[in-house]
From TrEMBL, chain A:
This is Sulfotransferase domain-containing protein. Coiled coil: none annotated. It comes from the Bacteria. Belongs to the sulfotransferase 1 family. The lineage of its organism: Bacteria, Pseudomonadati, Pseudomonadota, Alphaproteobacteria, Sphingomonadales. Pfam families: Sulfotransfer_1. Signal peptide: none annotated. Residues 3-280 form the Sulfotransferase domain. InterPro entries: P-loop_NTPase (IPR027417), Sulfotransferase_dom (IPR000863). Keywords: Transferase.
């Protein structure tokens, strides 16, 4: 097994990308609720507990981080562990794609949190215009857009970082939108292939093909075309409506639906001018670095 | 005149330097204090299990394992990085060594949880990751992985008038007639601050489970000390898309898989080739008690509704008598 991290800041198209891969070489669209989900995610708690044989919930976030490099190195070639949550990662041929939202950081012992090159052979980094991320994040979390913009600017921001309860996943430090991307793009441990959400919208087949080539997966043009059809926005949204929901959708306090608009540039009619300008001020350097214009 | 010293009397007069606890029906002699466990006043009782600090090997000969643990048929060596190393042997002995300047109070939860769980697996108990409360004269279990809401539901049920049986794991023994029994794993709940606040249990809050965690031992209103016959086993599931809320009875095959999947450490069951043991136990539990799924929203304000469902179900299956 060859592991590739599917890294992205939240709400940047990670799920869509996983659905595209899951739909390769299928005769009918994969059920969105059969998609291997958080069980295979880097921050999945149950899998950590199963592999390490002790409860992560009894560790502080920092203590847990110090065990994570070993955990990822041990699970690099492990496809499945028996347990209450035994879904495997999204895999094709001999390549396993593992979703990760964590920033690329070092533990207090100086090791890469994700275990470095012995834990994965590379990373596909999915990036999306932060002006679209802001409104999608607000919708997902049931936040105001201004709250989402604050979150994206905060170096201390993260998911599952409360200390008064056991979050359902291990803590994921994000570090803010710009630092998140700087961390992944400047680390020297793993080769990174960058996929822009907007390019995935513009030419899904070619963008997917480029990413799969990077990962070492060879697929035919017709296989790609079929996967693109099966993971088209209308298909996903239709499945979500028909099946009563998508289990990866946020809990009731958040969005009504996960697959919301599926467009690039939606921020033009969703952000006020002040909100847009604030994002551009907060993230101008990285926006330019990733090829976004304003 | 000096009286001759009787060596036997000298030995008996010495107060043992270990405490005695009852955990999952076993008498435990430990060289440390185990918060949350049922302490026994009779310190002379013969112990089934010994927990003591001591020197540990770096590796086990002929072992297989994972990143931080190794096991053979009779021994299990595990490291909780930066905190504690433990060697669990023959279902009877837990030896431990603290790492660095870790205080024993910050490591004991791994001994009474992780270490003791491994020991119960070695004793071939049917060990489920479950909390339990007493309903009538039966134990009702709630299975689920860490974070599934076992302790919170148990805490809410204790507040609603049911005695606590177990907080984290349940060791099931099956007698010659095929009837299952559960012995309590301790006398206290372990709850996070958020749950303590939401369940209004502040007055019952005791020591933290580890000094740097906002997770605390909580004294239940009442706890059961003796083994109880098993009444029902519920698999906790969160109500999300496509999972309908409520209580349902899975097929026997699915129920069997759920029991094995909710073993405290399924990988140990697999590696010790205990699958048949769990299969037979599931069949017996299906016949004498019942295996159900409980699919519910996980918000605190939904707990009363969940308890309503459970009580209605307990009346249906005869664990509670129907109101006249």
């Amino acid at each position: 097994m060859n592991k590739i991290w599917l890294a992205s800041y939240p709400k940047s198209g990670n799920t869509w990308f996983r659905l595209l891969i899951a739909n390769l070489r299928r005769d009918s669209p994969v059920d969105i609720n059969d998609l291997p989900h958080s069980g295979g995610m880097a921050s999945a708690r149950a899998r950590f507990d199963t592999v390490m044989m002790f409860p992560s919930g009894l560790l502080t976030h920092a203590e847990c981080d110090r065990s994570r490099p070993d955990y990822y190195r041990a699970t690099a070639s492990m496809r499945r562990e028996e347990g209450p949550d035994d879904r495997q990662d999204t895999a094709i041929d001999n390549v396993q794609f593992s979703k990760v939202h964590d920033a690329y950081t070092q533990t207090s012992l100086g090791e890469p949190l994700l275990g470095g090159p012995s834990a994965a052979s590379g990373a596909i980094l999915i990036v999306r215009d932060p002006r679209d991320v802001a409104s999608s994040l607000a919708n997902h979390g049931g936040w105001s857009i201004d709250d989402a913009i604050d979150f994206m600017a905060s170096p201390d921001s993260g998911f599952c970082n409360r200390t008064d309860r056991q979050p359902n996943q291990l803590r994921q430090q994000l570090g803010g939108w710009s630092r998140y991307h700087a961390g992944w793009l400047t680390q020297g441990d793993l080769p990174v292939h960058r996929v822009r959400y907007e390019d995935l919208q513009e030419d899904t087949a070619a963008t997917l093909r480029g990413a799969l080539e990077f990962a070492g997966v060879t697929v035919t043009a017709s296989e790609i075309a079929r996967a693109v059809d099966f993971a088209a926005f209308d298909e996903l949204r239709g499945q979500e409506d028909r099946s009563g929901g998508f289990r990866e959708a946020p809990r009731p306090h958040g969005a009504a639906s996960f697959f919301r608009r599926g467009v690039a540039g939606g921020w033009h009619d969703e952000l006020t001018r002040a909100q847009r300008e604030r994002i551009e001020l907060d993230h101008g350097g990285m926006l330019a670095g990733l090829g976004y214009t304003w | 005149m000096d009286l001759p010293v009787d060596p036997v009397m000298t030995k008996i007069n010495a107060v043992p330097d270990t405490s005695r606890y009852s955990i999952s029906g076993l008498t435990v002699a430990a060289d440390l204090e185990i918060p949350g466990a049922v302490a026994l006043t009779d310190v002379w009782q013969t112990a089934d299990v010994t927990i003591a600090s001591g020197a540990l090997p770096d590796r086990l000969d002929g072992a297989t394992g994972g990143p931080n643990w190794q096991m053979t048929k009779t021994a299990f060596l595990i490291v909780v990085p930066g905190i504690i190393r433990m060697l669990v042997s023959n279902g009877a002995d837990i030896r431990y060594a603290l790492i660095g300047d870790t205080a024993i109070e910050d490591a004991v939860a791994f001994l009474s949880g992780t270490g003791f769980g491994i020991l119960l697996h070695q004793r071939e108990r049917i060990l489920l990751h479950a909390s339990a409360v007493r309903v009538g004269n039966r134990a009702v279990l709630f299975c689920g992985a860490s974070g599934a809401g076992k302790s919170t539901l148990a805490g809410a049920l204790v507040t609603a008038g049911y005695d606590l049986v177990s907080d984290d794991f349940c060791a099931i023994s099956i007698d010659a007639k095929g009837v299952s029994h559960v012995a309590p794993d301790g006398r206290q709940l372990k709850l996070w601050r958020n749950a303590i606040d939401r369940l209004a249990l502040e007055e019952r809050r005791r020591a933290p489970v580890r000094s740097m965690l906002e997770k605390f031992y909580v004294e239940p209103r009442a706890a059961t000390a003796c083994p109880l016959q098993l009444g029902a086993v519920y698999m906790l599931r969160e109500q999300r898309a496509t999972l309908a809320p409520g209580i349902a009875r899975p097929s026997i095959v699915d129920g069997t898989l759920m029991v094995r999947g909710n073993a405290y450490r399924p990988a140990i069951v697999r590696r010790m080739a205990q699958q048949k043991l769990y299969f037979d136990a599931s069949a017996s539990i299906c016949q004498h008690a019942g295996i159900y799924t409980l699919t519910r929203p996980m918000a605190f304000h939904d707990l009363p509704v969940t308890i309503d469902w459970l009580e209605a179900h307990w009346r249906d299956i005869g664990l509670l008598t129907r109101a006249a």
